């Protein structure tokens, strides 16, 4: 595989459709990421592609931009199928595709995943769609129903193939590929290349271009890294709280687009923070002037894109904020490297939306460091900070200024209105802080719940945790199932969060899993039909029947002579010969 870590070309150098280039200019993308620079040309030529790159390297644009450029918009049938391991990624890819195609007249993209109303998907398929983005389980459902036809596909994209393998979907992926035309284009992306993924690539890709993007895996030890999960409060308000409460010398805030640098810098200026934009549209002289102001202390905050901040070396930068999560782990490492210079301590803060948690995990994996969750400063924290600064200002003025005139003013007010000096000082303080109140307005904000992984254990059954109920599923060790398969299928197909999945116990030919006790009946019935490792889950409430901690033995359906029906033993009827023998012994 060819390796590439740097890119020197621009999007204008690539032969993308004019409508696609227009969107790229509008959103302010500057240069392609390495995976985009290497993938777009061969995909535009119709070549198959095998790409190894970590999550968040910009793979979606790498395949979406060239494939959208090659669509036949007059043909209202699926031309591109994108397979993703989870519903979250399916939605993310579909939204990105819709954004890139917004100037393609009559274009339609359809996300297809479990947990969504089947009727809605059927109606959209009947109306016609150009791109389908889906999870393997739901795509298989449509193929069995005959409601999705893949016979006229021009391209199939398999995204995060190694995750498909971990979640037990790799066989589904192979079956779906067999439904697609022989003469098609295929692109397969994977963070790692286990042998099972390579086997599929060899079977289904024709003379592919092979690309491997190598990511850096080192960060500065003097940098404290934290993340805030975006929830319940606007990012700008959260950023404002951080600016108010942290001890900041200078800060660089990273956003994805040139437009965003200007918009955010203006909003921060309006809130009283000394800030300026730094992007590729600025002249070299203006960029240098902005950096000089930051170095000299004439400016405290710079809002920048990755490209504009390359080579930026300002020792007084104490904080880096990833306001928009970067496209790849290498960019993250470059970003936070702007602080912690010359042995000084630095602080890096990452804003993470719920659907971006996969990228957070990828960053932790690439840097081999855990990023700690942070709680935003409270209203009380901000009040204490503002009051402290206010007191420092008062003390500084008392030490440095001649206050005779103002002392006489206070004496005059006291005599004229017969009030205590304390009351007069309080009124003056109130007037002084009106434009920037010492006590911020009350806001309602709930911290997001902590993320916890499902617990996996073996042994005897126990009771489920409070709020959870124990269920039985008909897949076990004999089928090759592991906890990741179960968690992936339930979270993906039923839209149940990982943190809402409790203890998992895997037995010989069945498993037990704790799920929310208030699970809707529609979700319950959906999970009965979900496939894992080639088996229907057949979800049922656990009856608690077992033999010394082992699963009950089950005879194959159709066999005579007793056994188990469900969890209940079926009475065995002895033959006539055995009954006669028993009677003879008794006499």
From TrEMBL:
The keyword Acyltransferase does not apply. SMART domains: DEXDc, HELICc. It is found in: Cytoplasm. Residues 9-37 form the DEAD-box RNA helicase Q domain. Gene3D superfamilies: 3.30.70.330, P-loop containing nucleotide triphosphate hydrolases (3.40.50.300). Residues 543-587 are annotated as: Disordered. Its main location: cytoplasm. CDD domains: DEADc, RRM_EcCsdA_like, SF2_C_DEAD. It catalyses: ATP + H2O = ADP + phosphate + H(+). InterPro entries: CsdA_RRM (IPR034415), DbpA/CsdA_RNA-bd_dom (IPR005580), DEAD/DEAH_box_helicase_dom (IPR011545), DEAD/DEAH_RhlB (IPR044742), DEAD_box_RNA_helicases (IPR050547), DeaD_dimer (IPR057325), DEAD_helicase_DeaD (IPR028618), Helicase_ATP-bd (IPR014001). Residues 235-382 form the Helicase C-terminal domain. GO terms for cellular component: cytosol; ribosome. One of its GO terms (molecular function) is ATP hydrolysis activity. Keywords: ATP-binding, Cytoplasm, Helicase, Hydrolase, Nucleotide-binding, RNA-binding, Stress response. GO terms for biological process: cellular response to cold; ribosomal large subunit assembly; RNA catabolic process. Its EC number is 3.6.4.13. A motif (Q motif) lies at residues 9-37. Residues 568-587 have a biased composition (Basic residues). DEAD-box RNA helicase involved in various cellular processes at low temperature, including ribosome biogenesis, mRNA degradation and translation initiation. HAMAP family: DEAD_helicase_DeaD. Belongs to the DEAD box helicase family. DeaD/CsdA subfamily. This is ATP-dependent RNA helicase DeaD.
């Amino acid at each position: 595989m060819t390796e590439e870590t740097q890119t020197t070309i621009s999007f204008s150098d690539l032969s993308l459709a004019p409508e696609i280039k227009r969107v790229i200019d509008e959103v302010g993308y500057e240069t392609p990421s390495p995976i985009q620079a290497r993938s777009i040309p061969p995909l535009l030529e119709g070549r198959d592609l095998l790409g190894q790159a970590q999550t968040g390297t910009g793979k979606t644009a790498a395949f979406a931009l060239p494939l959208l450029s090659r669509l036949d918009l007059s043909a209202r049938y699926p031309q591109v199928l994108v397979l993703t391991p989870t519903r979250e990624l399916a939605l993310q890819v579909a939204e990105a595709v819709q954004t890139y195609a917004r100037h393609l007249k009559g274009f339609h993209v359809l996300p297809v995943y479990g947990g969504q109303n089947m009727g809605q998907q059927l109606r959209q398929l009947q109306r016609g769609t150009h791109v389908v983005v889906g999870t393997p389980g739901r795509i298989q459902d449509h193929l069995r129903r005959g409601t999705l036809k893949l016979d006229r596909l021009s391209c199939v994209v398999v995204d995060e193939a190694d995750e498909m393998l971990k979640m037990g979907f790799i066989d589904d992926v192979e079956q779906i590929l067999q439904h697609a035309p022989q003469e098609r284009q295929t692109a397969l992306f994977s963070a790692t290349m286990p042998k099972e993924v390579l086997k599929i690539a060899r079977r289904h890709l024709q003379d592919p271009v092979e690309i491997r993007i190598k990511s850096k895996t080192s960060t500065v030890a003097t940098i404290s890294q934290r993340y805030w999960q975006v929830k319940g409060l606007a990012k700008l308000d959260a950023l404002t709280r951080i600016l108010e409460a942290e001890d900041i010398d200078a800060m660089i805030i990273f956003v994805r687009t040139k437009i965003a640098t200007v918009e955010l810098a203006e909003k921060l200026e309006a809130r009283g923070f000394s800030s300026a934009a730094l992007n590729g549209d600025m002249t070299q002289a203006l960029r240098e002037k902005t950096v000089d102001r930051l170095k000299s202390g004439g400016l405290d905050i710079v809002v920048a894109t990755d490209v504009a901040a390359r080579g930026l070396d300002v020792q007084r930068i104490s904080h880096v904020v990833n306001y928009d999560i970067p496209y790849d782990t290498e960019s993250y490492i470059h970003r936070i490297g702007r602080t912690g210079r010359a042995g000084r301590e630095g602080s890096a803060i990452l804003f993470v939306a719920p659907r971006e948690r996969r990228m957070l995990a990828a960053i932790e994996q690439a840097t081999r460091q855990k990023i700690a969750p942070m709680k935003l400063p409270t209203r009380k924290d901000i009040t204490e900070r503002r009051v402290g600064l206010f007191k420092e200002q008062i003390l500084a003025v008392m030490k440095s200024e001649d206050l005779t005139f103002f002392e006489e003013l206070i004496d005059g007010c006291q005599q004229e209105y017969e009030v205590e000096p304390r009351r007069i000082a309080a009124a003056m303080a109130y007037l002084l802080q009106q434009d920037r109140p010492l006590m911020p307005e009350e806001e309602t904000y709930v911290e997001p719940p902590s993320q916890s992984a499902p617990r996996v254990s073996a042994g005897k059954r126990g009771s489920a945790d409070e709020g959870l109920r124990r269920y039985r599923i008909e897949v076990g060790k004999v089928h090759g199932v592991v906890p990741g398969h179960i968690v992936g299928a339930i979270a993906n197909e039923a839209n149940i969060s990982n943190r809402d999945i409790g203890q998992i116990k895997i037995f010989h030919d069945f498993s037990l899993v704790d799920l929310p006790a208030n699970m809707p009946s529609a979700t319950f019935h959906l999970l009965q039909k979900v496939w894992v490792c080639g088996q229907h889950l057949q979800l049922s409430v656990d009856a608690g029947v077992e033999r010394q901690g082992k699963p009950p033995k089950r005879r194959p359906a159709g066999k005579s002579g007793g056994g188990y029906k469900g969890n209940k033993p079926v009475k065995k009827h002895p033959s006539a010969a055995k009954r006669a023998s028993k009677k003879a012994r008794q006499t």
